[in-house]
Design a protein that fits this description.
three-stranded antiparallel β-sheet
Length: 585
């Protein structure tokens, strides 16, 4: 196998396509009041008052990929994506001052030599291949039509700042863990109402958009497809003629800002889908781990006893179908992944190529990476030395900072270790462990930002690989986000990590708040138990008092009976003139 193929796949080896094995039938409690039942590939929500709330949330807007209002011939012909905000009936909420429709201005700074082509890939100078006019939101407003708030802000006027805390999945209560899993499965089985995916290149849709080729997709797979699309090979023309040394979200500076925005959007999607606006993505702290601690049936799925490469049938994830996992086939047809199911989710943690990954990352590895002062160095790609980004991404030795070939460390090591769907770059987001893993990677990025407090000049303005310069818009997000805008602390985006809090706050978040939340969930039962206990106590007390009264009456009768027998003796004594006895008595 060629070195190029190894560089494009974390696993570094060809994988055979696995036959589908089994389906899962389960029952998942989302929250009090309604139940989701999964049977085969069917997904239904049992009747309850909360169903109305859920469906109302599904009618809201979302934040990424091709907005449905723009995915049509008109949008492609005019190259304009400025949807109407229902709040005032104007494009981008202009009448309410939320935003306005304007020309897209892309960065003209040169990119590096890794991609020598121009004008052949839809992702170049994103999003101009599809749209050159989009909404620009004012103040704290956000969303593709400015109908929402930007990260960290809430309320009708987006004036309320709120900070959420992401917590370690191992410290969550059983109820919280199961809620997270049920939310994942709900997203996997709910079609996105506001976004679609492109199933063909822009040129295939016709010069004037006369042949729009978009497709529905569920809310979870939307993000799987996005991760595929941003990292796929570039088509050069003709079957199998592709350029592999291209990736708009990996192997350079945008790796960390891009995945930060990706997680924020995914988090926001789940909040709107479920109506749980306190939801945050948990993380898995894998430092010094010897095994996949989250690979259990109660969490992300254990190993199947039928095949070590499959998920245990006891886990809901055993029924999941993966998408976008066959890049060689897409390249041979010069076609995009169309999100068709391609078999079961695969995972075989620990049975990986140990020459490529000798161990999982340690606390010392993380500390060394955080200590590096430069974010990017040299060529600003996978060959960069002493680069914090390159060490954390896993293309450099976490003990020396020097780039290595043929080995995967840090972030990449976890992907290879999972030895399945998560081990191929383009399809890695199929495995929900991807979210836990990248949340922890994002926390390490945050540690570095807080340690060094870099200015924006630390982020490369020019000459990074295509898609990674400061001013480049992230592919394929709509609305538009520049890489450099997310080279800053997560506090500016309204979230925090529990283990980065000071000890007092950490106690509140990891111990006190979960306890109070559990108490809140069961307070009705506690109240009922208290009332029942009080009633039982009253009944027992009444029985005891009644018994005591009965006993006292019984004792009085006894005494009365005894005195009744002695009375004649007293009388007899009196009659006999025994004054001494009478006096004594």
């Amino acid at each position: 196998m060629s070195l190029k193929r190894t560089e494009d796949c974390w696993l570094g080896e060809e994988r055979e396509e696995w036959k589908e094995f089994g389906r899962h039938t389960g029952r998942i409690n989302l929250k009090q009041g309604f139940t989701v039942r999964t049977t085969e590939n069917n997904f239904t929500i049992m009747r309850s008052p909360l169903l109305v709330v859920l469906l109302s949330q599904l009618l809201g807007t979302c934040l990424c990929q091709f907005p449905r209002p723009c995915a049509n011939s008109e949008g492609l012909r005019t190259k304009e994506c400025c949807p109407v905000w229902d709040g005032d009936g104007s494009a981008c909420g202009a009448l309410s001052g939320r935003g306005f429709c304007t020309e897209v201005e892309v960065s003209e700074e040169p990119h590096g030599p890794q991609y020598p082509h121009s004008g052949i890939d839809d992702r170049e100078r994103w999003p101009l291949a599809f749209y050159n006019r989009t909404c620009r939101c004012a103040g704290n407003y956000g969303g593709f039509n400015c109908g929402e708030c930007r990260f960290g802000y809430w309320g009708a006027n987006c004036a309320e700042y709120r900070e959420s805390v992401r917590r370690n999945i191992m410290t969550l209560s059983n109820a919280e863990q199961q809620k997270f899993i049920s939310y994942l499965n709900l997203a996997k089985n709910t079609i996105s109402r506001d976004y679609v995916i492109a199933t063909a290149t822009r040129s295939e849709m016709g010069e004037n958009g006369e042949n729009p080729m978009f497709s529905d997709i569920n809310a979870y797979d939307l993000f799987v497809w996005m991760h595929y699309y941003v990292s796929r090979d570039a088509f050069l023309g003709g079957p199998g003629n592709v350029w592999t040394d291209i990736d708009f979200a990996h192997e350079s500076a945008a790796f960390l800002p891009w995945h930060r925005v990706y997680l924020l959007h995914w988090e926001n999607e789940i909040r709107k889908l479920t109506g749980d606006f306190n939801f945050t993505i948990p993380y898995w702290d894998w430092r010094d781990a010897q095994s996949c601690e989250v690979c259990t049936d109660s969490l992300m799925g254990g190993r199947s006893s039928f095949s070590p490469n499959l998920i245990s049938p006891a886990s809901v994830f055993s029924s999941w179908k993966v998408i976008c996992t066959q890049p060689e086939e897409y390249n041979s047809r010069e076609a995009l992944c169309n999100a068709t199911g391609e078999g079961p989710l695969l995972r075989n943690p620990g049975n990986h190529d140990t020459n490529r990954v000798q161990r999982l990352p340690t606390s010392a590895d993380v500390d060394f990476a955080v200590s590096l002062q430069q974010y990017e160095t040299g060529s600003m790609d996978r060959f960069a030395n002493m680069s914090f980004r390159n060490v954390l991404e896993g293309f450099a030795n976490p003990e020396t900072g020097i780039a290595v070939q043929g080995q995967s460390t840090m972030h990449n090591a976890l992907h290879v270790f999972m030895n399945g769907s998560m081990s191929s770059v383009q399809g890695s987001a199929n495995d929900p462990i991807f979210l836990l893993h990248h949340a922890f990677i994002d926390s390490i990025y945050e540690r570095w930002l807080r340690t060094h407090q870099p200015t924006r000049t630390f982020y490369p303005l020019r000459n990074a690989p295509i898609g990674h310069n400061d001013g480049y818009y992230m592919v394929p997000f709509m609305p538009l986000y520049r890489n450099g805008d997310y080279f800053l602390s997560n506090k500016a985006m309204g979230y925090e990590y529990a283990y980065l809090l000071d000890p007092g706050q950490r106690f509140v978040e990891e111990v006190l708040n979960p306890y109070l939340q559990q108490a809140q969930q069961i307070w009705q039962w506690l109240l009922g138990a208290g009332i029942l206990g009080a009633l039982i106590t009253v009944v027992i007390a009444a029985v005891v008092i009644a018994a005591r009264k009965k006993w006292r009456r019984s004792q009085r009768r006894k005494r009365a009976s005894i005195f009744g027998e002695r009375q004649p003796l007293l009388q007899s004594s009196s009659e006999e003139g025994s004054a001494s006895y009478q006096t004594t008595l």
